[in-house]
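Fold in C-alpha cells:
===
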Amino acid sequence: MFSPVFYIIGHLLVILGVTMLGPALLDHLQHQAEGVIFLTSSSITVFTGFSLIFAFKTNIKEISVRQAFLLTFLTWTVLSGFAAIPFMLTSLKLTFTEAYFETMSGLTTTGSTIFKNLDHLSQGLHLWRAFLSGLGGIGIIVLAIAILPLLKIGGMQLFQMESSDKFDKFLPRSTQIAANIVLIYLGLILLCFFAYWLFGMSFFDAIFHSITTLATSGTSTHDQSFGYFNNAQIEWVGIIFMLLGAMPFVLYAKFLMGNRRALLKDGEVRLFIGFICIAAILIFVHLFQKYGGFQAKIDFFVLIRKSIFHAVSYMTTTGIATENILKWGSFPLLILLFLGLIGGCRGSTSGGLKVFRFRVLLAQTSTQIAQLIHPRGIFIPYFNNKAISPNILTSVSTFIFVYVLIIFIFAIAYACVGVDFLSSLSISISTLSNTGQGLTEIYGPFSSFADLPIVAKWIMILGMLLGRLEIFSVLVVFLPFFWRN
C-alpha cells in the first residue's frame, strides 16, 4: 500500500528541493546569509526525496482509491514540513509551528502570514513564499482535475474524465493532464508578469505578484498588499488574472484546442461571473451612498474599480485588499464574507465551496419547485446539459452540510482558546475557504496572525488543509476502517 505513495512523495520532494535553489541563488547574488540556508535546506530535501525513490522504487501502473487518499493527504503535510526548513534556519528563528503555518498557508494558497514586517524580508524569502503559492496552485488544479473526481468527493465525480471508476492507467492519464495545465498555468503567469511590470511594478514585485495572483493566494511583499502600489492599472491587471486563476483550467485547454465558446457555455462560469457582478453592484451602491451620493464630488470610476476589485478578490478567495475595507461598514463585509465562502470554480486555484455546488443545488431546487407545482411530472436536474445523478446530489448536499458544520466547530474552537467570537467566525470561514484574511479589526486584511495562540495556529493549519483538500480526503485518513484490509 505504501510503496507507490512514498515513491511519488519522493519525486515531489526532489522537485521541492530543486525549487529552493531559486531563492538560494537570489540571496547569494545579493550577499544575503539566507543563500546558504536555502542551499542546505535544498540538500536535505533532495536527499530525502531520492532516498524515498530508491527505497520504494516500483513500477506504478495503477493506484488504488485508498492510496490516492493517502497520497493527497501526505503530499500537503509532508511537503509543508520540508518547505518549513528555510524559515526555521534563518535569522528570524521561527518556531516549527510558525514555519509550518507559513508553508501550509503557501501550499494551500490561503495567503495568511505570521510575518509582521513583510517589507523588510529578504527577496529570497519572498521568492520562496511565492514559489510555495505557485506550487500549491498548480498542485490543487491537477488534484481537482485528475484525482478528486475519481475519489467522488463532494460531487466532483460530475467532472470525471474517464468512463470507468477504476484507477487503471491512472498516472499516464494524470501526467498528460498535468503537462497541458502546467503550460497554461506558466503562460498566464508570464502574461501577468509582463502586465504588472509594464504598469509600474518593480521587476521583482512583478515576478512575485504574478505568481501569487494566478495562485489566488493573495500573498504580498508589502504589509499594505496592493494598497502599497496605489495604481489603477495594476489593480485592473489584478482583477483580470485573479478571475483567470479562479476559472476551470481545463476549459482553457479546450479553448486552445479550438472550442472557442467553452468558457461562455459553461454554467458554472456564468454563475461565477454573475455572483461577482451582483456583489460589485451592491458594494458600489453602498459606497456611493456612504460617501454622499449625488451631493458629493465622487469619482465614479474609482468606486467602480474598488467595488469590482474587492468582489473579485474575495470571490476568487485571493483575499487581497487595496485599502482598509473595515471602514466601509458591515454590509460590504457580509457580502465579501459570503463571496469567500462560495469561492471560485472547480479545477482552479481558488478555494471555497466552489460555484458548481451552488449550481447543482439551484438545479435541484428548481426541480423540487416544479415537482410541487406538477406532482405527476418527472423533472431531472441538469448541469451543462447533463443530467445530475441522485448520487451526485447526495454527495454535494453532504459536503455542504459538513463544510458549514466544520466552520462552526472551528469557530467554537478558536473562541475556546481566547479569540473573540466575531474574529473566530471570520477566521474560521476565511481559513476553510482559503481566503486567508479575517474581516475584523484584530485580524483584518492587512493583519498578521503572529500573535494568535499556538493552539489556534494549529487549528488554522488544519482548517487550511481541510479547505484545500475538499475535507473528506483529509477526514477519511483518520477513520479506522481506512486502515483495515
Q: What stands out?
A: The chain is about 65% helix and 0% strand. The first strand starts at residue 382 and ends at 383. Strands lie at 382-383, 386-387. Residues 162-172 have pLDDT under 50 and may be disordered.
